[in-house]
Amino acid sequence: MAVIRLPDLNQSITEPAALRGFLAPLGIQYDHWPVEGRVAATATSEEILLAYAPEIQALNARGGYITADVIDVTPDVPNLQTMLDRFNQEHTHAEDEVRFIVKGSGIFFVHPPSGPVFSIEVEAGDLINLPAGTKHWFDLCRERTIRAIRLFREKAGWTPTYTNDPIASSYEPLCLGPAYIPSGKARLTSGLNLA
Ligand SMILES: [Fe+2]
Question: I need a surface site. Which of 79, 91, 129, 187 has the fewest CB within 10 A?
Fold first, then answer.
């Protein structure tokens, strides 16, 4: 299940109803779908899309998305850091950023119009929808692995528009347990940033 953290206030939110209640005023949708036994660990992208077709269709009906794909990031991806560096600075998109996490974990940071910056750590089973225009950035957790279904109205809309605000450098991508990244120095030197 997802975890929200408000680093400036030293607070966190883990209870699902509270989590949804916190995100709703910002138009951010959070959901958790069962993933246990849905697809094999070695499933192809096509098998994942097929397995989650009912959920994808429901989201498409709600959000007008017309295409779906699967992004598969592992530490072995060539030029991984270059790819991730596109998304670990504050940016917006012209369309919603919809991600359903099938495997691995990651951490979104959101910079709301008012109120403090907060992070949402997501893991397998978590669905998150950041509305178009939401200021955010994204990092991977330590295992540098994430597999996620993405939904689009049109893929061009997902190009990042950078705000050129260096705010992301003020926040460490803290994840839970073994995924914990201990310091901002590690973030800068060990290539743990993710998109
Ligand atoms: Fe983004």
Answer: 79
CATH class of 3-173+184-189: mainly beta
Ligand 1: distance of its center to the CA of 86 in Å?
9
pTM: 0.86
Q: Do the beta carbons of residue 153 and residue 95 sit within 8 Å?
A: yes
Distance 57 CA to ligand 1 centre (A): 22
CA distance 152 to 174: 28
Sequence length of the chain is 195
Work out the percent of the chain whose per-residue pLDDT is above 90: 68
Ligand 1 (single-atom ion) residues, CB below 5 Å: 97
What confidence tens digit (pLDDT) does each residue in 14-50 have?
A: 999 999 999 999 999 999 988 888 888 789 999 999 9
Q: Is 127 exposed, middle or buried (0-12, 13-18, 19+ CB in 10 A)?
A: buried
Sorted by where each begins, the domain ranges of the chain are 3-173+184-189
**Ramachandran region of residue 3, left (φ > 0), alpha (ψ -120 to 50) or beta?**
beta
